[in-house]
Design goal:
The protein has about 180 residues and is mainly α. The protein has helices at about 5-15, 25-35, 45-50, 60-70, 90-110, 115-125, 130-140, 145-150; strands at about 165, 170. It folds into 2 domains: about 5-85, 434 Repressor (Amino-terminal Domain) (Orthogonal Bundle), CATH 1.10.260; about 90-155. A two-stranded antiparallel ribbon has the order 1-2. This is Helix-turn-helix transcriptional regulator.
């Protein structure tokens, strides 16, 4: 993949992560970079990079873009001749697909900021698959979700108390394993 294609791809991902349901425009990107990093890049410079008119970045520009997009600076170069993305490990390919699926799921729940944030947090984790498998293990272990919730709801631990209405209409917390048992 060429550098310009990578920048376009990163604009797409960033737009999705910001709830735009589209790629960030070059102008939106330059404004966001300035607002969030204090560094300035012009829209015309980004356009030249994306079109291939400027095939190389200055080190300063590479650092600014890497910091903004939260990628390694080494990613922001053309891939070597003969490089094929399918050479990526199968697990990394799975992680990327899973991350994309989680991000699009988060967008579907944009009216529920806590759920959207939780989905994006999992999607942005380095090991999304492991996070989901851990969640499954927590739900499969009788009583564990309830105990974890108690510990995490103690003052200062960050989880807010939320009531869940059960099927019988009573409010409370609910924990269900895959076999439908309640703890």
């Amino acid at each position: 993949m060429k550098l310009g294609e990578k920048i376009k791809y990163l604009r797409e991902v960033e737009g999705s992560l910001r709830g735009m349901n589209r790629a960030m425009s070059q102008q939106e990107l330059t404004r966001a970079i300035e607002a969030e990093t204090g560094s300035k890049l012009s829209q015309s410079y980004l356009s030249q990079i994306e079109s291939g008119a400027r095939p190389h970045l200055t080190n300063t520009t590479r650092q600014i873009l890497a910091k903004f997009f939260k990628v390694h600076p080494g990613y922001l170069v053309d891939d070597p001749e003969g490089y094929h993305p399918e050479l990526l490990s199968e697990v990394r390919g799975l992680e990327d697909k899973l991350d994309s699926w989680m991000v699009s799921g988060a967008e579907r729940f944009r009216r529920d900021p806590e759920l959207k944030s939780a989905l994006l947090t999992v999607a942005q984790h380095e090991r999304t698959r492991e996070c989901l498998l851990l969640l499954e293990a927590i739900l499969e272990t009788p009583g564990l979700m309830g105990r974890l919730t108690e510990v995490l709801r103690k003052p200062g631990n960050g989880i807010r108390e939320q009531g869940v209405t059960s099927k019988n209409g009573r409010a409370g917390t609910r924990e269900t394993g895959t076999k439908g048992r309640r703890d």
